[in-house]
Amino acid sequence: MDPDLALPRYGLAYRLFGVVVAVWISVVLVLAVLGPVSNLPILEHTARNLYFHVPMWFVLYAGAVAGAWHAGRYLATGRTVHDVRSEAAWMISTVAGAVALITGVIWARFTWYQGTGLWWSPEPRQNMVAVQLLISGAYFVLRGSLDRPRQRARLSAVYALFATASMPFLTYVLPRRMASLHPGAEGNPAFSDMDIAADMRWIFYAAAVGFLMLAWWLYTQRVRARVAGLRVEALGTAAPLPAPVVS
Q1: pLDDT of residue 185
Q2: pLDDT one-digit tens code per residue, 6-26
């Protein structure tokens, strides 16, 4: 059996980390709902979405960078474990991107477009993120369309590097150069420049750290599940022992 298919060993510290993540996220959720909120014009209580929408961007980028790193390592070494880890990181990144887009659409619907009935608009960042998610989703379509493991891993690694390279331009550089209602775009201050209460900032920082920890925990679980699946496949395709000769 491929030595790369050894199941990762997670000890007591990892289990305790899972408990810490669960408690941390629970506290963040309570503070997000019941904590203080700045009386910002238009945003008002919808500003609580800051604790969910923005941390998903951090997870999106962190997962993409991790996926690209392991994609590059696979191309350099050919080790199966890097393909597994790249796929797991991209899965987390893509899910976070989808959550970021959905929370952003809902946030815009009840602030910028309240009373218009609009759920989708030509807002540049919203549309650019949708394009990036299509690119990210194509990664999994590519993986599912190839049967040979080595070919699938190589082509997926190359595509992952391309998708990661496109991300900062589509989700950050280009939207900031276009007229937009989104904070940080041309003509609009970023959240860091707004008069946000100090208590909200601390909750936001806690939420960002908590969701990054949750993402890492889910990533490790995904890796372990994928390795276990590959081990089962390898056992299922192993050559059967020759039948005993009856004299």
Answers
A1: 56
A2: 666 777 888 899 999 999 999
In a domain, 238, yes or no: no
How would you class 190 by CB atoms within 10 Å of its CB: exposed for 0-12, middle for 13-18, buried for 19 or more? exposed
- Residue-range definition of the domain harbouring residue 190: 13-230
Give the span between the Cα atoms of 179 and 19, in whole angstroms.
44
pLDDT at 243 over 60: no
In a domain, 246, yes or no: no
b/e map of 19-51 (b: 16 or more CB within 10 Å)? eebeebbeebeebbeeeebbebeebeebbbbbb
Report the first-to-last Cα separation within the chain, whole angstroms.
33
Residue 179's SS3 state is: strand
Q: 235 lies in a domain? A: no
Distance CA(104)–CA(82), nearest Å, equals 32
Look at residue 117 in the predicted model and tell me its pLDDT: 77
> What mean pLDDT is predicted for residues 173-196?
63
**Residue 102 falls within a domain, yes or no?**
yes
At 27, list the tokens.
């506290």
Give the residues across from 59 on adjacent strands.
none
* Counted domains in the chain: 1
Q: What are phi and psi of 179, to 5 degrees?
A: -65, 125
